[in-house]
Amino acid sequence: MSKQKAMPASSFVGEIFQLGLYKPSQGRITRQVTCAVIWAVIALASLRLYQTLYEADVWQYVGPLTLLVVGFWAAYRGVNYPRFADFLIAVEAEMNKVSWPSKGELIRSSVVVIFVIFMLAMVLFGYDVLWQYLFKNVLGVLK
What we know:
By secondary structure, this protein is mainly alpha-helical. Helices cover about 75% and strands about 0% of the residues.
């Protein structure tokens, strides 16, 4: 078992209301992309809530706007939460170690995969036709 110390609840609350960034120069791209995706989900959720509360007087505007503001702040602080930020920093470091294929290699590999998929589709279609023929004409199970 790992011997990690549990973070007290007071430091979590303190971290949420902090303005500074945790390790601002590390994992910047990964954190920005993660935050942008979370923001997009929150914006869509706010829009859906607005549509659901159609003609609900003040709550039509207050609820979605509150969700939007609180959600954006929570997402921004969440990607700067030390444990999650360290994870995102490690993800970016590992992605930099990946050996990416060249454009030509990518195209050749894609052509092979697409060709194999079509060949397998034709084989499965042949099996389907064969089994239909056997069940209909030889065994008489299907009408």
